[in-house]
Amino acid sequence: MQWLSSSSHENQEDIEAETIPISSSTEEVEIVEVVESQLQQAQSKIKLLESQLQDQERTIESQTEQLKQAENFSALLLTHRILEPGLPLNGTQLSPAMRVLGSPTTLTELEANYRELLKREHPDVSPFALSEAIARFSYLRSLYRITREHWQELKPTAPITLQELERRMNARVPFVPESFW
User: Fold this and answer.
1) What is the pLDDT tens value at each position of the chain, 181 positions in all?
2) How many Cβ atoms from other residues are within 10 Å of residue 141's Cβ?
3) Number of neighbours of residue 133 by Cβ within 10 angstroms
């Protein structure tokens, strides 16, 4: 009991010491200096933490960019937009009809080019006169349909004879292939 009472007595003296107004100006200056010192220490800690946070944010941004690149590469591999090594091209991608479709070398590339061409060549947005825009759009759709249906024979990696390649290269198309791109 006596220990509790002395302990409470010491706490009461501490409280009274804190509430006693300081009248001496030297004591006030010392307190201000201590507070300013503590404030400077706190500010320097804040600056250090902010610097560490910026470093961590840069690291996270770098890692995020690396992850995006890896995901993009994985997506390309999964969609077969990257040709398997060793598959030689037979030259069909340079034929006029395939040039209209953007000279695709894979089925995925053919489909992507077709979607882009549909957006650009639709008669509602085409810069050509309405009749020509409709003709170009119809030709594009039929060319894609035929190419898609016969992709295994028409793809640039399929084995073909020189005569077949020459026939494809000399095929006439109603529009200049480069005008689509």
Assistant:
1) 444 444 445 555 555 555 555 455 788 888 889 999 999 999 999 999 999 999 999 999 989 888 888 787 776 666 665 555 556 778 888 888 889 999 888 888 899 999 999 999 999 999 999 999 999 999 999 999 999 998 888 888 888 888 988 988 888 889 888 888 8
2) 14
3) 17
